[in-house]
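> run fold Glycosyl transferase group 1
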Amino acid sequence: MATYSWSLLRELVALKRYELMVFVQAGTALPSDLASKVRVVEVPQFSGRFQRVIWEQTILPRIARRHRVHLMFSPGNTGPLLGDFRKVVTIHDLMYAMVPGSVERYQARFRQVMDRLTARTADAVIAVSETTASDIRAKGLRVGTRLHVVHEAAGPGFGPDDPEDAIGACAHGPFIMMVASVLPHKSPQTVVQAAARLWQHAGIRTVILGTDPYGTLAAALARSGDVGITRLHGVSTPVLAAHYRRAVCLVMPSEYEGFGLPILEAQLCGCPVVTTRRGALPEVAGDAALYIEPADADALVAAVSRLVEDEALRQHLILRGQANVGRFSWNKAAAQTAAIFDACLARPHKSR
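> ok
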């Protein structure tokens, strides 16, 4: 959510319509171009999500009152339920409800309760996609006309050309790439199965850029052996962009996504996309992707092979992708978000 928070904040600063105060955990550095343009309030560093939410519900409203905050914007799914200020919360996805078993049962129940309370108390709820908004309604969260859709966009540093391109950090030879924390709903087993065949029969490597928090990928690799997979994590934006520019394609065979930011990053860099029609992925990718089913490794191999063998198709997807990303911008997102803020501030407010 860092891309969402910092990119949106950067554009809100540019609007020069508000005095902006940012609550950040101790040790968190703001981007250098923002640090001098907002008021920064440092808060404790949290050991986990539950500790953060408890602090958010008990301490944050008092801090906000002391600083005379008029509107609290919470960009990460939860925010204060009480407090004498307007409340706007962004919900990124309802994966816990849409993909059974994707999180522990207690985590799903906790998020369900928080989402229901947020829907009741927030002055406005922002969904990052029409899909997430539809899921919110389908799961009975009572938001009514307070629900708004504001799409995300790719962050700075992505594009087809860069004079300081980090080519030296890229994998050698042809490769496909997956950009994600390796979680079960990302279909890692499908990627591993396809990677083995692409490596053995075509010499195409698979580069996975992201963490493996539950050891899902490590377990799959232990069963499969050397299948031409390179794992990277913690890479800089220039290194990530350099990989996009040289990859055969980005693969994103997820069962569900609330948005799908890597798709836009890839398309900006001229990288074709292979993904699924699940969740918000077709909403984001539009007609500029090849689509497969999440568990279909054969279809993934076939899609990659088409892009290797058919240069006309590859160029068509690149051009369609570069046209598609024009639908999304942080400037547009900030203008829409500011309009939501203004509407909330203009309405009579009841203290809670």
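The chain has a mean pLDDT of 91.
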